[in-house]
């Protein structure tokens, strides 16, 4: 996942002359040279799926294809993730609701809550943190699939898993590699329809976890799960552990 650091708003002018609207002053959000939102004033934030890149010829949501996200909260994070439910409606929707480039390149993105709240102080159009829908466990599984190397656990939001890729697992930091990847698949399947809340807590330095070593076109180390008492829990992007339930300090 990509942590959005040092985001800032910039004033721009969009040229809607081709749609006979003239010039439109707008605000975009950028971080380290990466454009995240192209016209905050035009975004329909109340929707479950949000187009953060509206048509730059007319400013109308849904006019242009792509640039869609789902906004979720998880603990002290605000997540920008692909709008998988909308994308899965049919083959046309795969393109129409595809995510923006920064997600296609870097995976799901996130703000720390403190940074997000500071942005809201500047631009009130952004939804309040407490109004953002919490991450569901099934959505967390989609993030696991998105981050798993070689798509070894299948395409995000589907259970079409090519087990031939399990042969890429040639070693593990503990136990047998093939058994660990099978346990990961079982954990994924067990939570794939789970609509209860999930939160991402940060992995502690001394927490025991299992790595898989994959031998494909290149050698890949993949931190897969933690060894919590009696059960496995997915590790996401070597940084977060996926917990089932509400964030302990939430109101």
List keywords for this structure.
alpha+beta; 251 residues; 5-stranded mixed beta sheet; 6-stranded antiparallel beta sheet; globular
Describe the model:
The chain has 251 residues and is an alpha+beta fold. It has helices spanning 84-87, 91-96, 101-106, 113-122, 137-147, 177-191; strands spanning 2-3, 7-15, 23-31, 34-37, 49-51, 68-74, 77-81, 109-112, 169-172, 198-202, 209-215, 219-228, 231-236, 240-244. It has 2 domains: 2-131, no CATH class; 137-244, no CATH class. It has 6 helices and 14 strands.
Order of strands side by side in the largest beta sheet?
9-11-12-13-14-10
Encode the helix/strand succession as letters: EEEEEEEHHHEHHEHEEEEE
Q: Tally the helices: what do you get?
A: 6
Share of residues in helices: 10-25%
Rounded mean pLDDT score: 91
Topology record:
Elements (H helix, E strand, L loop, with lengths): L1 E2 L3 E9 L7 E9 L2 E4 L11 E3 L16 E7 L2 E5 L2 H4 L3 H6 L4 H6 L2 E4 H10 L14 H11 L21 E4 L4 H15 L6 E5 L6 E7 L3 E10 L2 E6 L3 E5 L7
Parallel strand pairs: 1-8
Antiparallel strand pairs: 2-3, 3-4, 5-6, 6-7, 7-8, 9-11, 10-14, 11-12, 12-13, 13-14
Compact overview of the structure:
It contains 6 helices and 14 strands.
């Amino acid at each position: 996942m990509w942590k959005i650091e040092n985001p800032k708003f910039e004033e721009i002018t969009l040229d809607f002359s081709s749609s006979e609207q003239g010039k439109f002053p707008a605000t975009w959000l950028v971080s380290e040279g990466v454009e995240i939102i192209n016209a905050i004033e035009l975004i329909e934030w109340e929707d479950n799926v949000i187009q953060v890149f509206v048509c730059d010829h007319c400013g109308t949501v849904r006019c242009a294809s792509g640039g869609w996200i789902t906004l979720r909260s998880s603990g002290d994070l605000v997540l920008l993730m692909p709008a998988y439910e909308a994308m899965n409606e049919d083959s046309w929707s795969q393109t129409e609701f595809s995510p923006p480039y920064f997600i296609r390149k870097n995976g799901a993105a996130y703000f720390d809550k403190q940074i997000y709240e500071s942005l809201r102080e500047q631009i009130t159009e952004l939804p309040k943190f407490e109004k953002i829908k919490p991450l569901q466990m099934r959505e967390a599984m989609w993030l696991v699939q998105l981050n798993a190397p070689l798509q070894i656990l299948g395409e995000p939001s589907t259970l079409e898993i090519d087990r031939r890729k399990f042969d890429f697992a040639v070693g593990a930091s503990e136990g047998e590699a093939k058994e660990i990847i099978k346990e990961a698949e079982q954990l994924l399947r067990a939570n794939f329809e789970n609509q209860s809340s999930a939160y991402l807590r940060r992995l502690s330095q001394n927490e025991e976890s299992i790595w898989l070593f994959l031998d494909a076109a290149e050698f890949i180390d993949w931190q897969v799960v933690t060894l919590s008492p009696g059960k496995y829990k997915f590790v996401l992007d070597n940084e977060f552990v996926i917990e089932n339930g509400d964030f302990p300090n939430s109101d």
